[in-house]
Write a structure and sequence with these properties.
mainly beta; single chain; 7% helix; 12 strands; disordered N terminus; six-stranded mixed β-sheet; 182 residues; disordered C terminus; 3 helices; three-stranded antiparallel β-sheet
């Protein structure tokens, strides 16, 4: 299975996503992974945990880890605002269904990204680890980053600051998606 295939996304079909902001950049989570969106709730910090997953929240009586992707993407961590939300997701990590909260500066909408508008991450010009991003989508004049949550949150995932290897990657999207539709 390549980066563009999931149980809910076949090549050539639009991808339904929930768009959100992280430090002014638009990100999108696959809508099939989103369980609910919460206002801010009390967070219990966990000493000694990963900096980007350093808290736990109570979601309907269940303990759920809270991740701040801004830290994983080496963005500045700004203060919470009236627009800050927690997106509760369920993803498979090492083949185990896992519920995790994702902090978002602002949540926008559920929308579709056309398959022809999905591109591989450019090899140059991005400061983020390419393997942390499934693809970049284009909607109008805006770019939308679709992260690979399972890879980012996997316990076996290396810290980007420690990653000194760059793997060779072949484009995995369809020729139509590479034709300049981005």
């Amino acid at each position: 299975m390549n980066r563009f295939e999931t149980s809910d996304h076949d090549a050539g079909r639009p991808l339904e996503v929930l768009t959100m902001d992280l430090q002014g950049q638009t990100f999108a989570l696959e809508a099939s992974q989103v369980r609910e969106i919460l206002d801010l709730v009390p967070v219990t910090e966990v000493p000694g945990s990963e900096p980007f997953v350093n808290g736990l929240i109570n979601v309907r009586g269940k303990v759920v880890p809270l991740a701040d992707l801004r830290l994983k993407f080496d963005m500045e961590q700004g203060p919470d605002t009236i627009d800050t939300r927690i997106v509760v997701t369920e993803i498979e990590i090492d083949r185990v269904p896992t519920v995790i909260g994702i902090r978002a500066d602002k949540v926008h909408e559920v929308t579709e990204l056309a398959a022809s508008a999905l591109e591989d991450v450019p090899r140059v010009g991005t400061r983020w680890r390419q393997d942390y991003i499934r693809f970049i989508g284009k909607r109008g004049d805006d770019f939308i980053v679709v992260p690979d949550l399972a890879r980012i949150l996997s316990p076996s995932s290396a810290d980007p600051a420690l990653d000194t290897t760059k793997s060779e990657r072949r484009p995995t999207c369809s020729p139509a998606a590479r034709s300049g539709d981005l």
